[in-house]
Amino acid sequence: MKKWVAIVAAMALAFAFPTVATADETTPPSVTVGNFAQYFVPKGKKTTVKPQVTTQGSVIVLSAKMTVKHGKKTVAKNVKSVKLRAGSYQVTTTVQWTSSGLPGTNTTVATTPLRISTFSASKAAKGLVSSLNAARLKNTAILDFMTRYGLDPAVATLHRSTTLDKIATSWAKKSAKKHKYVNPDWSKVPAAYEWAWYLPVKTGNPYVPTMSEEAATQWFAGTDDPMMSCGAWANGDNAVADCSDSVEALWSKIGVGFAWDSKGWLWVSVIIASHT
Q1: Which end of the chain has the smaller Cβ count within 10 Å, N or C?
Q2: How far apart are CA 85 and CA 49, in angstroms?
Q3: Digit-coded pLDDT (tens) for 47-81
Q4: Residue 136 and residue 248 in one domain
Q5: What is the DSSP pairing of strand 102-118 with strand 59-70?
């Protein structure tokens, strides 16, 4: 009989790319144009790029505009934001600002490179699983469990499952289509995966590759998170995921699926399971 750990921890990884970040007013006034992260977009699509500006002290930003070049061609001039396809760009940002500590209007200008790459689901999945496994092998509860039972810590490593990848992808596509988390259809999971747990994730826009690593090391790092548990067991009608001596089956498989929605947000589904 199948038993499912049907806990849905709906998370929005709200990675912010603020136009202006402020500091304490006692700090001497200054404005800095920051570097761009490496953005990723679906094949043939565009992403919105905005100025990366950080302020310190008592600063009021009057305007922040960009001029963007792709090779020798200027693709945007003096704009507040711009939609760009995959490629390499040079972005000149001009910031007009004032401060009570400085007279008149001040100007800060800087040119920074911008790289926008086409998203690769296979590379993203590999990075997420690698980061998650690395975090699991550092988790105290998992290491204590392995020590108690004389198991090699490598037993806690989750291995990719093509079957679970396909299921996770189909669930991610449904969420992306409806722009909301969709309850999984557990009947699609084969009986060989006796226990399973599902996590839907909505990433930030634009997507940057470090989101997978940060999700694994920060959001999943808690000892009470099922992603950081050893396995699952039945407690009456409830399913529990932890590292207690009651664990009936260890997590051993993982599936990852991605889907972009029409607004440029990337939806991710992660499934972990035991395999008989």
Answers
A1: N
A2: 10
A3: 899 999 999 999 999 999 999 999 999 999 999 99
A4: yes
A5: unpaired
